Each structure stands twice: as C-alpha cells, then as structure tokens.
Amino acid sequence: MDLAYNAVLLAIDIWFLRVANPLGARRLAIGASVFGLVASILALALARDLFGVMRLLCYAIFVHGVAISAVLGIRGWKSSPVIASSMLFVSAAVALVGVDAFLIEPRDLEVSHVPVVSGRLEKPLRIVVLADVQTDGVGAYEKKAFVTALQQKPDIVLFAGDYVQVAQTHLDRHRLALRALMKEVGMAAPLGVYAVQGNVDPPGWETIFEGLPVVTFGDTRDIDIGELRVTGLSEEDSFDSSLRVPATERFHIVLGHAPDFALGDVQADLLVAGHTHGGQVRLPWVGPLITFSSVPRSWAAGTTVLSQGRTLVVSRGVGLERDEAPRLRFLCHPEILVIDVQPDATHVDERTRPTAR
Questions:
Q1: C-alpha Rg value of the chain to the nearest Å
Q2: 186: Cβ–Cβ under 8 A, 6 or more apart, which residues?
Q3: In whole angstroms, what is the distance from residue 142 CA to residue 160 CA?
Q4: Which tens digits make up the pLDDT trace of 57-87?
Q5: 55 vs 11, 39, 51, 282, 324, CA distance in Å?
Q6: Contacts 24+ apart (CB under 8 A), 249-253
Q7: DSSP class of 248
Q8: Contact 230, 223 (CB under 8 A)
Q9: What is the C-alpha separation between 150 and 10, in angstroms, rounded?
Q10: What is the pairing mode between strands 282-283 and 265-266?
Q11: Alpha helix positions (H), the chain
Q12: Domain limits of the chain?
C-alpha cells in the first residue's frame, strides 16, 4: 500500500514540476490543488482506517511536499526570487517539523510534576503514573522509562493501560519481553503497583505482570491500603461517562485507562487516566487535534480541577499509537507523571462533612 501510494505521488510530483515551470503563483495554486486532492482521495481509497489515511498523508506532506518545494525553490531562484524563497522557506519549515515530530519528540521523554493538596492524608504521598507504554519492540526506550519512573522514588505506581500493540502472532513474545524488563529493573513500590487494562490490550494482558508485585484490575474493584483507597476500573468502565463511584473517608484514587469516566459522578480525590496520548499532535492556540475521548479537549492532558475538590490528571503517555498510525508526536512530548500529594490539615472535604441531624 505504501509503495503504491508513493509511486503514484512520484508521478504527480513530476507533473507538478512541469506545470509550475516557469514558476508563478497561478501555476503553483493549480499544481498544489491537484496534488492535494489526488493525495487525499488516494489515501482514502487505499487505507483501512483513519490512522492509515493519516500515515499516507504524512508521506505526501513530509516527503513529497518537502521535495517539490525545495526543487521549485532552487529551480526558480533566478526568475522568481520572491516566490522561490517562499518555497524554500516552506520546504525547510516542513522538514524541520518532520524531523522533530518523527525523530525527536517520540523518544524525548519528560518527567512532569503535579502538586495536589489533600486534608485526607497525614503524610506526603508520591504517585508515579505510567500510561500507554504501547510498545511494539521492547528495548532501550522502555527501559529508560521504567528506570526513570523508579528513580522518582514513588510510594505507589499506577499503570494506566495499553502495554503492547503488535499483531496477535507476536503478542506473547513482546509480553514476555516487557515482563522480563520490569523484573530486570525491579518494578515495585512500597504501597504497591497497580495496573488496569487499555483498549489495545486483548485478553490475557495480565500475563505481562505475572511474577511481579503488581495488582491487576480485570474488573472494577476497590483496594484499601492504610489511609488510601485505590479503585481500578475495567476498560469498559473507564469509557463510561455516566459512571458512579461513591465517596469514601480515605484518600481515594480512581485509576482508569480512558478519562471519560471523569464526566460521571465519580466522588474521588484523584482521578487518573491515559489513553489520549495528549492528542500526540497539538497545535498552538488549538490544542490536540484528536483525542478519541468524550472529555473536553482541554482535559486531554495535564491537570483539571473538577468540582467538589476532585482533581483529574491525564497522562500524555510513554509511547505512541502503532499499527497503521504515523509514529509521530508534535508539541506533545511523552511523559512520566509524578503526582505529589501533600497533607493539608486545614482542609475539610465537603463530600464527607458530617451533616446536621
């Protein structure tokens, strides 16, 4: 599919270069319109899904578009220096975006710190969130992510789903490799490690954590750890925008894969999710282009303060979308989330305040 698509675009490239000779604004407009239309129609015809369309269009923009602009700029420099310089500028700008999006940002892992204050805790609590590892080749990058997470000295580690994204025939091998890596780095925390299922995780995903001190949540359930309660959501419940989770007197963490559950009546102190990847592509003043979530786009990454003292934290994820999708990030670095919860003795939680009789 990729070869056929690029072969057709190469033929259009040659046509475009001929049409735009001599270089002129009108000729450029005609050539660019035809090129864009054919590239889009062909991508829609060849690709199996939206991600496939996006991948093919990336070839059109970052390979063919850059090459055409550069050739036109060089060839037309003497006859039309203003238009030629514009073409060279566009070529260089798009090329730089491509280098950043495909080669730099996807592996430029950040550690993001989120402060939270709660009157339900007597001592500080450090939570590390690892969301959307989503690997198709366990290696140095995944090891860096796990080692970096443990270097933060977490009291508790939360895995927010989407661990391996490969074809079914290779699934077991990659699960074993991910498990071996976690054993190698000593994936553990004083108050435990907890993992929920993501939407790319088929049945049997729990085997990734076999032999490790990790609690997995196949179904929604609660676990009490001292003054904490951790509610792990099933993959289905994490997408339920009408989900109800009652209040508790403990400091309550609800962990789900998708953030959609935050739209429901979830009476917890801290709501943690992944899934959105922060959009993977974010534009200035626009934000994420696609989130595949029903929450407002402003909730798709980072911290959102909800009503009744609740805090939603959504991770941009460690990995990125695989399979048919273009493997890029733009203005949306992968991240490890570190949530530091500090006690606040002056705070009284309205959800559990005793009512007058």
A1: 24
A2: 150
A3: 15
A4: 999 999 999 999 999 999 888 888 999 899 9
A5: 19, 12, 6, 17, 7
A6: 249/120, 249/352, 250/120, 250/224, 251/118, 251/120, 251/121, 251/125, 251/227, 251/341, 252/120, 252/228, 253/127, 253/158, 253/228, 253/229
A7: -
A8: yes
A9: 48
A10: unpaired
A11: 2-19, 25-46, 50-59, 66-75, 81-98, 140-151, 171-185, 235-238
A12: 2-105, 110-343
Cα(285)–Cα(307) distance, rounded to whole angstroms?
25
DSSP secondary structure string for all residues of 222-234 = EEEETTEEEEEPP
CATH class of the domain defined by 110-343: alpha beta
Q: What is the dihedral of CA 305, 311, 315, 321, to 10 degrees?
A: -80
pLDDT at 347: 54
pLDDT digits (tens, 9 = 90+) for 88-147: 999 999 999 999 999 999 999 999 999 999 999 999 999 999 999 999 999 999 999 999
Task: Extract the tokens encoding 257.
Answer: 């894969």
Report the C-alpha gap between 318 and 316 in whole angstroms: 7
Angle between helix 25-46 and 50-59 (nearest 10): 140
